[in-house]
Design goal:
It is a single chain. The protein is an alpha/beta fold and 296 residues long. It has a domain of 202 residues: NAD(P)-binding Rossmann-like Domain (Rossmann fold). Helix content is 44%, strand content 16%. A six-stranded parallel beta sheet has the order 2-1-3-4-5-10, sandwiched between helices.
């Protein structure tokens, strides 16, 4: 199967290329130099060239502060870009798998969100991602809209200075010996490698629609940090950040846990508890460092 992965040099995109290749598919890794999703002609030229059966879109403007400063640009990428992909995917007969976010919710529910819950985003990023979802669902029948949460992976996250939460915690622990993390914001940490395998599994299905796709379980950011340090035997003083100690520049949901109800109802869910995926990530990280040391 020919697969076009858009945003292939990102955290999720790089793992998707590997996961589809491991599954025996031909994965065309498309980056911003290959396709400009805000330009319909660029999208058409790129997908006509690849002739994919499946298009996976991970490209997005997802720096929350940047989206708030430049909502028109955010809408062009997250909204119109999704529309362009859906339109061309329909024309070439491809399935579109569009990655969305937990930030479509405001966090007020206080229990895991399911696909039937109405979006109510708090910021421009969330609003533009909701717009993209609607464009995809209204433009092509052969679609998967996939919301995920708390992503971390081995490829650098450019929107977060090249560091995911795991790497940031380990860096701060090494540099400072003490780390403060909030314990009143809840999420489901999700490995991009595991999400990539889930997307490959879904690509073998014709159960199109809206899906939540995260690891099983949930935790506060403080609990996530504690698990990171425990699994790596990192010597650090982990403290709870005081209320307002790290004020957000843009409103974010304090509770954005998603329940994979649709995946489970279709027999498609492959996710494990978030702690197991984190253990695998940290293990691959150590293995990679060992190999680099041996090669030097």
């Amino acid at each position: 199967m020919n697969v076009a992965v858009i945003g292939a040099n990102g955290q999720l995109g790089s793992d998707l290329v590997a996961a589809f290749s491991d599954a025996g598919d031909t994965a065309a890794a498309l980056t911003h130099t290959d396709i400009e999703i805000t330009n319909a002609e660029s999208v058409s030229a790129a997908l006509e060239r690849v002739q994919p059966q499946v298009v996976v879109n991970t490209a997005a403007m997802h720096n929350v502060e940047s989206c708030e400063r430049e909502p028109e640009k955010a809408f062009a990428v997250n909204g119109i870009g999704a529309r362009n992909l859906a339109s061309v995917a329909r024309q070439v007969g491809a399935v579109l798998m569009h990655v969305s976010t937990d930030y479509v919710f405001d966090g007020s529910k206080g229990s895991p969100y399911v696909e039937e819950d109405a979006p109510r985003p708090l910021n421009a990023y969330g609003i533009t991602k909701v717009a993209g979802e609607h464009f995809v669902r209204a433009t092509t029948d052969k679609h998967f809209v996939i919301r995920s949460s708390g992503l971390y992976g081995t490829a650098p996250c450019r929107a977060k200075g090249g560091l995911n939460f795991v790497e940031l915690m380990l860096k701060l622990a090494k540099e400072r010996g003490e780390v403060k993390v909030v314990d009143n914001e809840f999420v489901t940490p999700t490995s991009t490698a595991e999400l990539a395998r889930q997307i490959v599994r879904m690509s073998r299905s014709d159960c199109y629609g809206l899906y939540h796709a995260t690891a099983e379980g949930s935790c506060s950011w403080h609990e996530f940090a504690r698990e990171i340090f425990a699994l790596t035997d990192t010597p650090v003083r982990l403290r709870v950040a005081a209320p307002g100690e790290f004020p957000a520049k843009v409103a974010r949901p304090t509770y954005s846990v998603l329940e994979n109800r649709a995946l489970k109802s279709k027999g498609l869910n492959i996710f494990r508890p978030w702690q197991e995926a984190l253990r695998d990530y940290l293990g691959s990280r150590v293995k990679s460092s060992t190999q680099e040391f041996a090669a030097s």
